[in-house]
Amino acid sequence: MGYISMMMVVWCVMNNLAEMVTYLPMKGISVPYFVGRFTDPSLAFAAGWNYWYAYAILVAAEASAASIVLDYWNVPVNVAVWITMVLVIILLLNIIAVEFFGEAEFWFASIKIITIMGLIVLGIVLLFGGGPNHDRLGFRYWDNPGAFKEYMAPGATGRFLAYWHAFVKAGFAFITSPELIAIAAGETVDPRRNIPKAARRFVWRLAIFYGFSSLIIGIIVPSNDPELLGASNASASPFVLGIQRAGIGGLNHAINAAILTSAWSAGNSFLYSGSRVLYSMSLNGQAPKFFSIASKRGIPYVAVLFTWCISLLAYLNVSNTGATVFNWFVNISTISGFIAWIVVMVTYLRFRQAFEYHNLLHTLPYRTPLQPYATYIVLLVISVLTLTNGFQVFWPGKFSAANFLAAYITLPIFLALYIGHKIYFRTPFAIKLEHIDITTGKKEMDELAEMEVPREAKNWLQKIWFWLA
């Protein structure tokens, strides 16, 4: 339920971005570009730094996750060694071996897709008793210990808090994902056709990879398994626990290794994205100029190193349990992502209002359903999620200064960046509707769209490929 609810939120955010990006699919654009153009330069400044901050913390989160996974094999090595190994390799791939970055990401992504599809199939097999022990699982764990695990309180209150906690935590899986459509727009072939297609299919991919996966986990592992992360300082994924319960030998090591490559890949991508955000802000005057220093091969190594330094927070694992530190990073990055989505939706509403003001809404090349009503509803939901991200710390007897800071420190940081920029540059509260620029770049994008030649399938195989691509 948590993942399904979050999919609806992400679907709306993706639609917002798709409408704006399809209208202006210019090379080098980013979300802060749209924020500054349609809403407010100060909000764009704060949004840019918020994205960088989120990416940097996500690198630390993935390094922390990788160290937890590596600990599965019970090697008598201090966790600091695992963290160092992960972070150093990520740094080398982003500075020295950057030419292998694309190749490495291709193989990492392939491993992730094959693994998750295989696990979904395996879960279905175990559901019907196809494992070595021929134990037909069915939905027994939905009866005992139950489909709903009460959280923080008994009864209906505990079940609602469990759902809300899952709803909040599901956001971590999708943080910065919709924004990729904006980053890729300038490099996309025939963006006016392919961006809407990608946006429409995005939610179905989420349903398969996240919806089915979370459903399978609930089938193959009971919620009271003592080895689950949170129940203990576990180092195995729920899929691995389910495989062990089914009596399948050896596969647990392969799956854990695949999960390790996934964490490594994600950390690698986040460092790349974060450093490029910082580099772009430096070029635009929103960050110190020295962050735009690049090598002869065009690698912004100063931005890479500075972003990487934030990931050294992963060493907090040395003095705390891996589960605790990982949850800190999850809270910090999730709240940053929620703030980013709030900014996206506010920007979209201003974008749409500007078109309505000029009576040009009908000229948009791509319009999504249920707008702007869906955006208003989701904006309210995300705002509530942001404010209740760390609701546990307000429960009687549960307050923790560390957990409170992890859940809410991003809010004052974002506000300080926004208000500080506004005071220093004396910018108005927002760009007036009549002054919002909705024409610059449109003519060039229209001309490029007219030059694109539609692909024609020559046989049924190409038809299938074009539909999937």
List keywords for this structure.
18 helices, 469 residues, Amino acid/polyamine transporter I, mainly alpha
In brief:
With 469 residues, the protein is mostly helical. The protein has helices at 2-23, 31-38, 41-70, 79-95, 101-127, 140-146, 155-174, 180-185, 191-220, 238-245, 251-283, 301-310, 322-357, 373-387, 401-408, 410-425, 442-451, 460-468.
How would you sum up this structure, described in words?
This protein has 469 residues and is mostly helical. The chain has a single domain, classed as Amino acid/polyamine transporter I. It is built from 18 helices and no strands. The chain has helices at 2-23, 31-38, 41-70, 79-95, 101-127, 140-146, 155-174, 180-185, 191-220, 238-245, 251-283, 301-310, 322-357, 373-387, 401-408, 410-425, 442-451, 460-468. Helix 4 (79-95) packs antiparallel against helix 12 (301-310). The model has no long low-confidence stretch (mean pLDDT 84).
Strand content: under 5%
Instruction: Provide the gyration radius in Å.
Output: 23 Å
**For the residues shown, what is the average pLDDT?**
84
Inertia-based shape: globular
Main sheet: strands, sense, barrel? none
> What is the CATH first-level class name?
Mainly Alpha
CATH architecture: Up-down Bundle
According to CATH, what is the topology?
Answer: Amino acid/polyamine transporter I
Order of helices and strands: HHHHHHHHHHHHHHHHHH
Number of strands: 0
SS summary, helix count? 18
Q: Find the CATH superfamily.
A: Amino acid/polyamine transporter I
How far do the termini sit from each other?
29 Å
Number of domains: 1
Low-confidence stretches: none
Provide the helix percentage. Answer: 55-70%
Structural class estimated from helices and strands? mainly alpha
